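Deviation from plan, reported transparently: FE2/S2 (inorganic) cluster complex.
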Amino acid sequence: MSTLIVNEETYPLPEDPRTTLLDFLHQHLSMFGAKKGCDHGQCGACTVLLDGERINACLVFAFQLEGKSVTTIEGIAKKTNDSDAKLHPLQKAFVERDAFQCGYCTSGQICSGVALLGELAAKNPSAVTCSADYSQKEDISERMSGNLCRCGAYPNIVDAIEDVIALEPQ
Ligand code: FES
Ligand code: FES
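Because the crystal trials were delayed, the predicted structure below was used instead.
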């Protein structure tokens, strides 16, 4: 049986090969954290992690991901032994920095932000990093540019990500 791992659980892939990953999450797994904004790869609301890297869930078919591991916003929080959900540092920073208004883009922003932290840890350059003079805020904005926020919460989102970068040894 063809399977896909989502948040460390294994699920059978849908029979209809036209099912996108986003529709698979919503209609088969009842995971609604990843949002459908544009359904055309333009807004980032559906961002999830595929083997640690961000991907627009509306742009891939679930069957293309056989055997791979997807992490959605539901899997970003770490589970402790006593089953209490513990927020990821970036989720805490979003709350502390008030980095959202309506919240529709937030799950995608946080998944993207988690992947951004991975890019920095791996020392992967962004387009901004390649210029001689850039600020950390500019670098974060460039790396997060695939995620739109109709409420315009960008300054607080960047601040929240900066807070978490400051926690990590670079
Ligand atoms: S819903 Fe996937 S990028 Fe907009
Ligand atoms: S918080 Fe409303 S779209 Fe971003």
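The two ends are 42 Å apart (CA to CA). We consider this an acceptable substitute for the interim report.
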